[in-house]
């Protein structure tokens, strides 16, 4: 089962009360999958979390949609096309329903209702996208940080130094990694020249690298502190 089929199956159950049509459900599923970065490997809890995050907005916008259609339909309740040859005038019965502007045809009234429906459905999609955006941004930030941290160019650079750099988009990975590596090399050379740092053996753990980096920076600060 593909991720779209999995999400669609869950959405049909979770959103059944909203009366969404087949094509509307399909578009909503596409939006959920794309916005939350779901794949065929995503777990059931990831799917459930994505649907749960979206449901309040779907309910709110569906309520607005129903109200808009109801108000538009009510506005033309009881209206009869004056150009309809099959229309036989009947005595007016109070209260007289509101009459649309002269000259509107039945097709124009139906078009107005359809436009109101289309506008509200667009608002539903936009609200869902806005609700999912923070989750998508957080996941993208974590993905970029992971890519940057795994760059081969940075294997000898301590994590505390790497954390000063933040990758903005994947296509800049190589450029930023090279800049970080070059800056680290330049810093080490400067500290070695000042006698503040001596190259440590290569066989060290991440914890050792972190401690060496902290000690190195402390020693540099002490050596270069203004003398009283």
> How many DSSP H or I helices?
7
Give the termini distance in whole angstroms.
73 Å
Low-confidence regions? none
Q: Report strand %.
A: under 5%
Helix amount: 55-70%
Described by strand count, sense and barrel closure, the largest sheet is: none
- The number of E-state strands comes to 0
Number of domains: 2
Broad shape: elongated
Structural class call reads: mainly alpha
Give the integer mean of the pLDDT values. Answer: 75
Could you explain how this protein is built, in words?
The structure is a single chain. It is built from seven helices and no strands. The termini are far apart. It is elongated. The model has no long low-confidence stretch (mean pLDDT 75). Helices cover 64% and strands 0% of the residues. With 228 residues, it is mainly alpha-helical.
Report a brief summary of the structure:
With 228 residues, this protein is mainly α.
Helices and strands in order, then pairings?
Blueprint: H1 3-14, H2 22-36, H3 44-75, H4 106-149, H5 159-162, H6 173-193, H7 206-223
Please give a handful of descriptors for the protein shown.
228 residues; 7 helices
